[in-house]
Every structure is written in structure tokens, then in C-alpha cells.
Specification:
The structure is a single chain. By secondary structure, this protein is mostly helical. The chain contains 21 helices and no strands. It has helices at about 20-30, 35-40, 45-60, 60-75, 80-95, 100-110, 120-130, 135-145, 155-165, 170-180, 190-200, 205-220, 225-240, 240-255, 260-275, 280-290, 300-310, 315-325, 335-345, 350-360, 365-375. The longest helix is centred in the N-terminal third of the chain and has 13 residues, at about 45-60.
């Protein structure tokens, strides 16, 4: 069955709530001065907050300008207007107000209220990171890791991730743990990764939980602890993480840290497969093919295997080619078998390469050419 390496977590957070950056700055003390407008804001008296903020903002107060941006972004006391939000954030940011620099940078990254500009976003986030804002340091590290708005620099990415992680920012702790486990920008060190993943996991960070679980299942560079790994995987799986759902299902299939239970294994793997995780789809197809935890059903096996194959998973492409060749769960089709075997072989599957060559020798030149044309035109997500 397909196994999983460490799960990759998203580098950047979507703009969900503008109050996140505000909360970050409050915790780091970057907001100061009169609090009456903030009191009104916190109490939901947005009319008063707007009246007081507008007067101060027009007078050039950077905190009030930030608050105006926040209210326009969230539609508190005014109609939502990201262009106005960006205008006020910029005025505040230009005076060095860290929270405004963060939010302006995030708007620029997504092109909301302003044209997308990764380089300017990186500048503003860098300015806020230099002032000690953890979210800014985390996002700056993410941009450096991707080479987005800045030259790709894994070492600098890891440095900024460490800065944010040291401040207790769970996403950065999780990412730093992943960097250490994979040797990205730092020396690979699974033992050093564990404490950072644990810190993030204690804050209920789902990606940290599954990556810590994967390290503990593997036991490479650290002591293997399947029971603890299964507990962590369950926590992440119950939070809806597809990688965790699949790995927990595999633990039940193999008896890793839990009692063997194929039925429960299928339940968890199905959840991951229904979220579109290719490896889980392939594994679910295999359970149907073997009749483990579910009644054997080659039609359903072919369905789930095809979904994974269409995402480009070589193992699923090879298996779907075999099923097409034998007519198991789908109509026998040697041209389709050659197509899928060719695609899997292109992804390094040696068994598929051998089958591709054998099929090419059996089929007519016209059929071989048809298969090659279809393989050349294939793209992920296309049958």
C-alpha cells in the first residue's frame, strides 16, 4: 500500500481575518497610545470607534490609520472596501506601524484592494519582521522558501522561520520542524525537528501533529513510537487533515500503534480519498481490489484507482494500466493500458516501463501511435 513521507504544509495563509495581525501586534506590544477607540472597537461600538479613529487618522496618527484600515477591511462600521483599507494601511505603514505593514503586505500578496506586487509585499513584510512581528517573519520566511518576491534562499527562509518560531508562533514552529526533518535550509536533523513540532502540536497545529506522527511512525533519527504516532495522527485526522486520515487508516491496516482493523482502516482512508488525496484514492482502490475491510469490488477499485491516476500518481497509473489490460473493473482496452503504462513509466515506475514495452510489441503500429499521442497529450486531471 502507498505510504506517506512528511506532509508538506502551505507556506502562506489566506487572508481570513484581519484581526489576526491585530492580535499578533497586541501580544507583541506594537500598539500603544490612547485606547478609547480600541475599547469601542472591542465592544462592537463601531460607530464610536470610526468617529474617533477618523479624526485621529486624518491628523496623521498611525495607529488610528491602521484601525481605519482594519474597519474598512472587515466592514466594521463601514461598507467593506479593500481599496480604502489598503490606502489607510499604507499611510500607517509608511510611518513604521508594524501591524499596518503586515496587513498591507498580505493585501499586496493576494492582489486584494491593490494590484498584486510580490516584491513590495516582501518589502513591507520584511519591515514588520525587523520590528519583531512573528507573522511577518513567518511569511517572509515562506516567501524566501518559494522565491516569491525575493530570490529563493532556503538558509534565510529557515532563519526567519526560526525567529518567528522562537516567539511561539505555531505555524512557524511547524514549518521549522519540517525544514529540520527534510534538511531545507538547515542540516537535516530529525531529533531537532521533534521539539519544534511538539511545540506547535501543543498549540493544536494540525500539520505539526501529522508530521510529528510521521516521524514517530518512521523512527528515522529518533526513537520509533507507533502508539504516540497513532494518537497524534488521530488528532489531526479528526481535525480533517487528509494526510492524517490516510496515515491513521494505514496504521489500522498494519497494526501500527493500534489493533489491526481493516474496516476502520477503510473508513479513514475513504475520508482522505473523498478529499481528493491521490495516495488515499489509490489505497482505497487497492482495498476494494483485495476485498480488505470492504467486499471485493473491481468496479469500485477501478473508479478510485482512476481518480488517483488522473492526478498523476505513478503507482495508480501502473495499476490502472494493468486493470485495463486484464479487463478488471473496466472494459478491456490494450490501448488504454499502454497509455497508462507509458505515463507511469515516465514517472520512473520500472514495472510499468516493462509492461509498456511488452504491450507496444503486441499492438499494431497504428495502436501504438494512438497510445503515444494520447500519453503525450495527457495532463493531470484529464482522463
Amino acid at each position: 500500500m502507498t505510504s506517506r513521507t512528511l506532509a508538506s504544509s502551505p507556506y502562506l495563509f489566506a487572508l481570513r481575518s484581519w484581526s489576526v495581525a491585530l492580535a499578533t501586534c497586541l501580544s507583541t506590544g506594537c500598539l500603544s497610545g490612547p485606547r478609547s477607540a480600541w475599547d469601542a472597537y472591542d465592544e462592537g461600538d463601531y460607530a464610536t470607534a470610526l468617529e474617533q479613529s477618523s479624526f485621529l487618522a486624518q491628523a496623521g496618527d498611525p495607529e488610528a490609520q491602521f484601525r481605519m484600515g482594519l474597519m474598512f477591511a472587515d466592514g466594521k462600521g463601514v461598507e467593506p472596501d479593500l481599496e480604502q483599507a489598503a490606502l489607510w494601511y499604507r499611510r500607517s505603514a509608511e510611518q513604521g506601524f508594524a501591524a499596518a505593514q503586515v496587513n498591507l503586505g498580505l493585501l499586496l500578496l493576494e492582489g486584494r484592494g491593490v494590484p498584486r506586487d510580490d516584491e513590495r509585499a516582501a518589502d513591507w513584510l520584511g519591515a514588520a519582521a525587523e520590528q519583531g512581528v512573528a507573522r511577518a517573519a513567518f511569511t517572509l520566511g515562506s516567501l524566501l522558501a518559494q522565491g516569491r518576491g525575493l530570490a529563493r534562499d532556503p538558509i534565510e527562509a529557515a532563519r526567519w522561520m526560526h525567529v518567528a518560531a522562537e516567539q511561539g508562533f505555531a505555524p512557524a514552529q511547524a514549518e521549522l520542524g519540517l525544514y529540520l526533518a527534510q534538511g531545507f535550509g538547515v542540516t537535516e536533523d530529525a531529533a531537532a525537528a521533534v521539539p519544534w513540532l511538539e511545540r506547535a502540536a501543543e498549540q493544536e497545529h494540525t500539520a505539526a501533529r501529522i508530521n510529528l506522527a510521521l516521524l514517530l511512525f518512521q523512527g528515522e533519527g529518533i526513537s520509533q513510537d507507533a502508539r504516540r504516532a497513532a494518537r497524534l495522527a488521530r488528532q489531526a485526522a479528526e481535525a480533517g487533515n487528509a494526510e492524517a486520515q490516510e496515515r491513521l487508516g494505514l496504521a489500522y491496516a498494519r497494526g501500527e500503534g493500534v489493533s489491526v482493523d481493516s474496516r476502520v482502516a477503510v473508513q479513514w482512508i475513504r475520508r482522505a480519498a473523498e478529499q481528493g488525496l491521490a495516495s488515499a484514492q489509490a489505497n482505497l482502490g487497492l482495498f476494494y481490489l483485495r476485498g480488505e475491510g470492504v467486499p471485493a469490488d473491481t468496479t469500485k477499485a477501478a473508479h478510485w484507482t482512476r481518480l488517483a491516476a488522473e492526478q498523476g500518481l505513478a503507482e495508480a497509473q501502473r495499476r490502472l494500466g494493468q486493470m485495463a489490460e486484464l479487463g478488471r473493473g473496466l472494459e478491456r482496452d490494450l490501448v488504454a493500458a499502454l497509455v497508462w503504462s507509458t505515463l507511469a513509466a515516465e514517472r520512473g515506475d520500472a514495472s510499468a516501463a516493462a509492461r509498456r514495452d511488452a504491450l507496444a510489441a503486441e499492438l499494431s503500429p497504428a495502436d501504438v501511435e494512438r497510445a503515444r499521442s494520447r500519453a503525450a497529450a495527457w495532463r493531470p486531471g484529464r482522463p
